[in-house]
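Field log, afternoon session.

UNIT: design team B
ACTIVITY: writing a sequence onto a fixed backbone
BACKBONE:
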């Protein structure tokens, strides 16, 4: 789900694309997910977020940032590092993270 009133930014910008599958051990996950959302939105360079879940238990999250430095700063944030560690140890069966610079974009919408 996108942030309220979220509109995709005008390129160029960075997109962090995360696909994941949760494990069965979700003790503490909801609280940490909420905290990471709050903390992530407060990070310099953060532009917004969109997410989807498919019917097979896989999630897709796209985080938008102004620049590569903002992406790197968020990845290295101490609380986020702890969440990453717990995610690998406990909460995720798998995940993939891709970072991309979006150079251009276009869309269509029927009236």
């Amino acid at each position: 789900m996108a942030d309220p009133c979220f509109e995709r930014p005008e390129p160029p910008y960075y997109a962090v694309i995360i696909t994941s599958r949760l494990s069965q051990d979700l003790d503490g996950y909801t609280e940490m997910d909420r905290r990471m959302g709050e903390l992530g939105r407060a990070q310099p360079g953060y532009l917004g977020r969109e997410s989807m879940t498919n019917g097979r238990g896989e999630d897709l999250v796209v985080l938008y940032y102004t620049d590569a430095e903002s992406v790197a700063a968020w990845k290295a944030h101490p609380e986020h590092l702890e969440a990453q560690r717990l995610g690998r140890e406990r909460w995720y069966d798998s995940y993939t993270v891709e970072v991309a610079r979006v150079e251009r974009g276009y869309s269509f919408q029927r009236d």
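LOG NOTE: The chain has one domain: 13-102.
NEXT ACTIVITY: expression trials, pending approval
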